[in-house]
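Trying the structure run again after the queue cleared.
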Amino acid sequence: MALWKEKTENGQDTAPAQEPVVAATPVVATPAAPRAEVKPKERHESFFGPGVTIDGKIEGDANVRIGGRFTGSIQISGNLNIEKGARVKATVNADTVAIQGELEGNVFAHAQVTLLESGQVIGDIKAATLSVAAGSRMRGNVEFGWSKAESEKIATIRTHDKGKNGSAS
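Done. Tokens:
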């Protein structure tokens, strides 16, 4: 849009060209339904480090990090991290399991098992997904790609069978 007047060939002033004015139509915003925010469940982490030896059972709704030695069973609704240098001899049932140390026993993970470079497993692994780093070692059977419901069903069946005859099949 020009801000000055222009002269025609015969010397008359012309008004600058006017752009048509379009009336703005008000837009009525309909309020969106408030979204129910899903807050991640805050889990506390329990940790015992090198030099600590525990025999027993770990249960609960928390994350667990093991840096020492543990013998028994682990059944948590959280994440299990086995640190480099840790030695665990247990049946493990958790959401995710990351292994940097040594684990002897079967692992049932609802989400993921990560076997890191320094990790070693002697036992079976069943998880929805599995990541294996170069340099890690394992001796046992592996099943992955299962849904959470299928993993829970198998864990329940094995726990039930163990109660009947004293050993998992």
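The chain has a mean pLDDT of 80. Worth checking whether this holds up in the mutant runs.
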